[in-house]
């Protein structure tokens, strides 16, 4: 007798299942917030202009499909609906969508949606429980509210760029990454979840106002209180940091680099032992943070001489054995080869019908009982327009008419 194998266990219901999120934003910040919600179960409808869609589709390395790798990664788990919000018919369809939505994410310049008759007062009257995430360069109020803003501008205005680079050199953007966008998306997702908890208790939605520069400013540790308390203006500190030593980047004989972070005296004592120079950690030499900071150049030079005489693998092995915080400065090829990235599944491979295997960052955070997941990569422009409009009650003839008019 043939026995059928037991069916595979059902995937756990994700914690945000049942929520409908409208992503009417472009590029990274607000769409990233919507994408995070989608990874944990929310239905995310990406609303894009019919003529080309989100410009992020053409940002970065392009593929044969006509969309960028950046879009394939960050458009994950979203359905694509094309809709011109500037046209009355498009605005009407949008209002119907809002009536059945839980969250709206947008990042137009303040006042743009109001100009189209789709501002908060209008939408919240349609749906009093709506949570509306609004991301902009400078926020919804203040004298700079109308200025355009991107992550690079936020890094500069928020105080991060001034801290980056070598003393006496030009200011740089750390990693030339859209850090401010991604941080704003994280703060935005947190704000949305907080507002939804309030909505579930009271029935009332609210606006979540995120300024890109404020997300950057929020993570600059003691910069604001230190200036207010001491008047000190921190400047670029290169590979080091103002408050700890040795705490920076050190070359190795193999040509690679390591980061070492001795944030307190105990950590330096461990490093001194690893280096075979335990006497360096005595109070009379460099055993206190104050002494090491006073002689930072000498400390860093000695550590650099030690690491520079060893291959990077040797430095890492010695520091790990001695419990010294030390890690390799990885390029992306190092990351792809690293067994820890592999063991933690920090990256995941998905199959795109036309392109084949595409590697993208995996879902964060990791939940033990109801983990998030990536169901699919970024969709083609308008791939779900017919289905979504049909669910709103529009007939095929009505949808065809909207297409003919360039509304969808």
From TrEMBL:
It holds the Pfam family CoA_transf_3. Gene3D superfamilies: Crotonobetainyl-coa:carnitine coa-transferase, domain 1, formyl-coa transferase, domain 3. It is an enzyme of class 2 (transferase). This is L-carnitine dehydratase/bile acid-inducible protein F. One of its GO terms (molecular function) is formyl-CoA transferase activity. Keywords: Transferase. The keyword Cytoplasm does not apply. Its EC number is 2.8.3.16.
């Amino acid at each position: 007798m043939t026995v059928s194998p037991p069916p595979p266990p059902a995937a756990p219901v994700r914690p945000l299942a049942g929520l409908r999120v409208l992503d009417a934003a472009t590029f990274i910040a607000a769409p990233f917030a919507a994408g995070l919600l989608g990874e944990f179960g929310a239905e995310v409808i990406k609303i894009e202009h019919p003529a080309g869609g989100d410009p992020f589709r053409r940002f970065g390395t392009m593929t044969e499909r006509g969309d960028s790798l950046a879009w394939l990664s960050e458009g994950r788990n979203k359905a694509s609906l094309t809709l011109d919000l500037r046209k009355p018919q498009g605005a009407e369809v949008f209002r119907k969508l809002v009536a059945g939505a839980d969250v709206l994410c947008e990042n137009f310049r303040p006042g743009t949606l109001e100009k189209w008759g789709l501002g908060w007062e209008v939408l919240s009257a349609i749906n009093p429980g709506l949570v509306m995430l609004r991301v902009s360069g400078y926020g919804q109020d203040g004298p700079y509210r109308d200025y355009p803003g991107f992550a690079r501008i936020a890094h500069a205005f928020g105080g991060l760029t001034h801290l980056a680079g070598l003393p006496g050199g030009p200011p740089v953007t750390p990693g030339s990454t859209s850090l401010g966008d991604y941080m704003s998306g994280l703060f935005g997702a947190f704000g949305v979840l907080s507002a939804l908890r309030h909505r579930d208790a009271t029935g009332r939605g609210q606006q979540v106002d995120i300024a890109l520069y404020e997300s950057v400013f929020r993570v600059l540790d003691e910069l604001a209180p230190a200036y207010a308390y001491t008047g000190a203006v921190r400047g670029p500190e290169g590979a080091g940091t103002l408050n700890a030593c040795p705490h920076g980047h050190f070359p190795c004989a193999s040509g690679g680099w390591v980061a070492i972070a001795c944030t307190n005296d105990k950590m330096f004592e461990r490093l001194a032992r690893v280096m075979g120079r335990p006497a360096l950690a005595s109070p009379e030499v460099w055993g206190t943070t104050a002494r090491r900071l006073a002689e930072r150049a000498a400390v860093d030079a000695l550590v650099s001489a030690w690491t520079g005489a060893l291959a990077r693998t040797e430095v890492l092995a010695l520091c790990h054995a001695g419990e010294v915080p030390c890690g390799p400065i990885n390029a992306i090829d190092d990351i792809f080869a690293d067994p820890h990235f592999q063991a933690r599944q920090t990256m995941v491979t998905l199959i795109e019908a036309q392109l084949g295997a595409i590697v993208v960052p995996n879902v964060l955070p990791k939940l033990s009982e109801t983990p998030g997941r990536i169901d699919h990569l970024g969709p083609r422009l308008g791939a779900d327009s017919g289905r979504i409009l049909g669910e709103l009650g529009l007939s095929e003839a009505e949808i065809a008419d909207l297409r003919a008019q360039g509304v969808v």
